[in-house]
Amino acid sequence: MTRRGMPRQMVNDDAEAGSFRVHRGAFVDEEVLQRERSEIFDRCWLYAMHESELAKPGDYLARKVGGKPLMFVRDRAGVLRGFFNACPHRGMTLCREKSGTARNFSCFYHGWTFDLQGQLVALPDSAGYAGGADPVGKGLKPVPRMEIYRGLVFINFDAGACSLEAYLGNAKEYIDLMLDFGGDEVDIAPGQQRYSIRSNWKLLVENSIDVYHAHSTHNRYFSRFLPDMGLPARTWLNVSDQAPGRAIALDNGHAVAETLVRSGPLLKTAANELAEVRQRLVEKFGEERAARIADYGRNLLIFPNLLFISTWRTIRTIYPVAPGYMEVDAWALLPRSESAHLKKLRMDNFISFLGPAGFGTPDDVSGLESCQRGFFEGADSLWSDISRGMHRDPVAADELQMRAFWRRWQTLLDEAPAPTTYGDARLDPVADDCSHGPECVEGVDRA
Ligand code: FES
Ligand code: FE
Q1: Closest of 340, 357, 337, 358 to residue 349, by C-alpha
Q2: Rounded to the nearest whole angstrom, what is the distance from the C-alpha of residue 344 to the centroid of ligand 1?
């Protein structure tokens, strides 16, 4: 049930008045979460894994994606396959290890055994079944859709969804910029972060693309950690000047905040190596594109729950378990052929800020949980303000990127055709092969 007194339209978008508000019921209401599951997580493309995690035939991993337990395996022919991680017999979790290498999968419960293509190949005492050992129709249930872009494996629970490429739209350009930082293909670094936050998942979406909060929330990083690294302390006299760059709303609710990178720990500890990397980028892509790749930091949202944060070369996904509780998974990206020394420095840089005990993550967790406690108290009547920058060409520290997310969120929850104009947005269709119809071709304002 929606809490009493809450509007169905949780997003109040008034470009003329320069006002953009989100009702805080969106963060606490159980019915909203149910609609998010059915209209967003069951319909949008969701990041599942990176191809490098399953390098050779027989490699497998099991993980939840969009709240559902899945398993992925590279079969003997090298084909990547995705299945629901549930035995078709009586539902036992089939793959009970997080990852490994296998020749087949045998169910713990009654011993049905499946090959790497998901086919049932053996079962104890098959004479007990009318069809005997005939395995037809008893294989693992495949994930409805699975497509790959630049090694990033996405799945979709909606068999009629548009193609992944159409869904990503013009965000592909920013994914490319995100992945090309070493001038080589990237691998997922061994290991994974898994943690939970006692707040609504959308607060971390906002936070992950929110340049405005950085100095205030992470003051100890800027005022203590950087000086300890031999770098000047930074203070925000004017947020927009300190973080020159822009916010860009992309297709289908995707968005990016990009800032010019002037300094940072890696630029000090790995100055020579990074200069060599930059030279390789120039040789491979030319000066202009090399500058776009190397000289800017980007926080990129792929709607609804995938974040790339380039300063720390990380991928992060978010999933809501309850209105006030989310689970977070994060991985580090490393260029495939880079030196072990530079990889270590990149990992140190990642962990020092975005590790669960780093200088950044605990600050954000504390802030988001504090917001959530307040939402539970006063959500029936209060609205959050997300209007920053509506009166100008949005800079990185503005909130256009969040408005792009919220507009798409409201559109999907409305179950109504998307408007062709929307507040300060300009809408351009970008995908025409989508079974969802017009609501899946939303483009938004571009900076
Ligand atoms: Fe898997 Fe019975 S539940 S074999
Ligand atoms: Fe933060």
Answers
A1: 358
A2: 43
Contact (CB, 8 A) for 187 and 52:
yes
E-state strands within 289-396: 296-302, 306-309, 314-322, 325-335, 383-385
> Which top CATH class is 46-156?
mainly beta
- Pocket test of ligand 1: the residue of 71, 92, 113 to mutate, having most ligand atoms within 8 Å of its CB, is 92
Q: Which ligand is nearest to the CA of 214?
A: 2
Residue 84, token pair as written in the block: 């629901």
* Closest of 74, 61, 114, 121 to residue 92, by C-alpha: 114
Whether 87 lines ligand 1, by a CB cut-off of 6 Å, is yes
Query: How many A from CA of 108 to the centre of ligand 1?
Result: 7
* 218-237 per-position pLDDT tens digit: 988 888 888 888 887 776 65
Atom 4 of ligand 1, nearest CA residue:
110
Same topology, domains 1-43+169-447 and 46-156? Answer is no
Q: What's this model's pTM, rounded to 2 decimal places?
A: 0.90
CB of 60 within 8 A of CB of 95? yes
d(CA 408, CA 221): 33
Residue with tokens 């290890």: 97
Strand 68-74 to strand 19-23: parallel, antiparallel, or no bridges (unpaired)?
unpaired
Q: List the Cα angle 228/233/234 in 5-degree steps.
A: 145
pLDDT digits (tens, 9 = 90+) for 364-380: 999 999 999 999 887 66
Ligand 1, from 84, 90, 94, 120: best to mutate by most atoms within 8 Å of Cβ? 90
Q: Pick the residue whose CA is nearest to atom 2 on ligand 1.
A: 110
Q: Domain limits of the chain?
A: 1-43+169-447, 46-156
Query: How confident is the model over 14-18, as a mean pLDDT?
Result: 93
Q: Is the dihedral of CA 292, 297, 301, 305 positive or negative?
A: positive
Q: How far is the CA of 124 from the centre of ligand 1 (A)?
A: 10
User: Residue 359 C-alpha to ligand 2 middle, in angstroms?
Assistant: 9
Burial of 280 (0-12, 13-18, 19+ CB in 10 A): middle
pLDDT in the model for residue 234: 72
Residue range 110-118: mean pLDDT, rounded: 96
In the predicted structure, residue 242 carries a pLDDT above the cut 80: no
Residue 94 Cα to ligand 1 middle (Å): 8
Residues 6 or more apart in contact with residue 374 via CB below 8 angstroms: none
By the 8 A CB rule, do 366 and 356 touch?
no
Fold for the domain defined by 1-43+169-447: Naphthalene 1,2-dioxygenase Alpha Subunit; Chain A, domain 1 (3.90.380)
